[in-house]
């Protein structure tokens, strides 16, 4: 059946509240990748399949999707000025920021982050 593929559970968590953000940041195993996006931004939307692929590949990390219009204060805290922006957090601290829709660069830097950042499980 064609629809079966779409029924797979997403490995990306869509942030839907401040509480959800706090929970996922504080309970993560120290490696978090955040996709700061906006529903109206075509390039952000185009990055969603790549972000899903990365989340499936690197299951030890937490992958979060956050709409900057819904959570302006969080976006402001991370100085998000363009979408898409990907922020890599280790222990809640930003260690890298990727601005723009460059799939090869995103893959390379997420791979490096996952394999070089210490995990404190």
TrEMBL record:
Keyword flag Disulfide bond: yes
Transmembrane segments: none
Pfam families: Thioredoxin (PF00085)
Cross-referenced PROSITE patterns: THIOREDOXIN_2
Ranges for domain Thioredoxin: 1-115
InterPro entries, A to Z: Thioredoxin, Thioredoxin-like_sf, Thioredoxin_domain, Thioredoxin_H-type-like
KW Disulfide bond (keyword) present: yes
Keywords of this entry: Disulfide bond
Assigned protein family: Belongs to the thioredoxin family. Plant H-type subfamily.
Name the UniProt record assigns to this protein: Thioredoxin
Source species of the chain: Stylosanthes scabra
